[in-house]
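Give me the fold.
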Amino acid sequence: PGVLAAAHAGRVALANAPGNGVADDKAVYAFVPDLVRYYLDEEPLVPGVPTYLCGVPAQREQVMDRLADLVLKPVDGFGGHGVFIGPQATPAEIDAVRRQVLVAPQRWVAQEFVALSTHPVVEADRLAPRHVDLRAFVLLSPDGGVVAPAALTRVAPEGSVVVNSSRGGGAKDTWLLGAGQPAPESAQDGQGGRRVRTGR
């Protein structure tokens, strides 16, 4: 009944299909390589961040031994809330997250810490580095998936490695070259004046 029945009858269109929120469960991260192999019948082209399920005893033991090296996230977390970053944590914070994981291990995943790239941003009339990530979008149609000619670059606030708009971060313009357009040439690379291209 309600919206689902109306969508099924073709009376309304939904931007996000029912059930797509399962991808927001961070425990899914651990299964992405297997999902690629199963659904696409190929090896992942880009390696994901190794993810450990704290609800699995053998994986939890490894996580407990390496809390100071890992990033822990609540599986149902959003907006960067509840994220624990081991390399930046104090001994008291490490002990606190250890207790939380032991009380409800199925609620946590751990990932290897990955140093995000930085990008210059304008801050008070000067350039300053900020951690960033890039979000690409794939749109589904009856003819298949299409990579949208748009992307979102999210920017962390100063001093933070958590890139999330709801945690004080922001967004930057992201420029994509159209198909078939040559990439802009870089400055000379010092090799006899030869110019090199960046990107595709």
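The two ends are 49 Å apart (CA to CA).
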